[in-house]
Design brief:
The protein is an alpha+beta fold and 242 residues long. 29% of the residues lie in helices and 16% in strands. Helix 4 (146-160) crosses helix 6 (215-234) and helix 5 (165-172) crosses helix 6 (215-234).
Length: 242
């Protein structure tokens, strides 16, 4: 058969299988139609709400395609719509691919949200029945689970290690900038004057790079600045004669 011959850039077997599935879906999603005659006989149809084939009395004329002489024929045709359950109780028709990685967050995750995506394994089938979320967002500024902040912070520490010292100094020696907006959130910054980490209220816009979601991230970024300052203080070349 042509649909079993898989040659060329677009294998005809895959195209044929897709066409078959679409046609089965078209048939099995039709509503029950008993007809308008009086020569009743036993037939079967696929009940979409119950996700199974049921018996009904067909009048003998005026049927639609969701009408089968035997239960087996109904189930063979409508197998793609039969509802099963995964181990965690989810509808097998609504199975999804794994979540993507969370999107990148800017600098030290100080603005905006992160997003990740997934897709149904059989999209054109699942869209008729399923309401699984296919995208998730999370606010980088306010995470409900504090442990998540520290996992993000640990990831940031690994990334921060690769940043050149000169760039770290540039970030950490910038003056405090809370910004003019009023969506206040707690942040940490490196105080150049005291050489310490301090808390401040960030307004939500027009900040600079000396702005960190957690003190851990602030310390990871600015620790070298403190160490450099200490080494300069103790460097004999920096001693001042009295």
């Amino acid at each position: 058969m042509e649909k079993e011959t898989c040659h060329g850039m677009k294998p005809s077997c895959e195209q044929g299988r897709l066409t078959d599935i679409i046609e089965k879906k078209r048939i099995c999603m039709q509503s029950l139609e008993t007809g308008r005659c009086t020569q009743y006989e036993q037939s079967f149809y696929f009940n979409l709400d119950m996700s199974k084939c049921l018996e009904f009395d067909y009048s003998g004329c005026g049927a639609n395609d969701n009408n089968f002489l035997a239960r087996d024929a109904c189930e063979d045709t409508c197998d793609i719509l039969l509802r099963g359950r995964t181990e965690d109780g989810k509808d097998t028709r609504c199975m999804t691919l794994p979540w993507s990685e969370w999107s990148a967050y800017s600098s030290v995750c100080r603005r905006g949200t992160q997003v990740r995506f997934r897709a149904y394994k059989v999209k054109f089938l699942a869209m008729s029945f399923c309401s699984e979320p296919l995208e998730e967002f999370r606010d980088c500024e306010v995470l409900s689970d504090s442990a998540q902040i520290y996992r993000l912070s640990d990831t940031r520490k690994t990334m921060i290690k690769s940043i050149e010292t000169a760039e770290k100094k540039h970030k950490c020696m910038q003056p405090l900038e809370p910004g003019p907006c009023r969506k206040f959130v707690d942040r940490s910054y490196f105080d150049v004057t005291t050489r310490k980490y301090s808390k401040f209220q960030y307004g939500g816009c027009r900040d600079n790079d000396n702005n960190f979601v957690t003190q851990d991230e602030c310390e990871a970024m600015c620790d070298e600045v403190i160490q450099d300052h200490k080494s300069m203080v103790h460097d004999p070349r920096c001693l001042v004669s009295m």
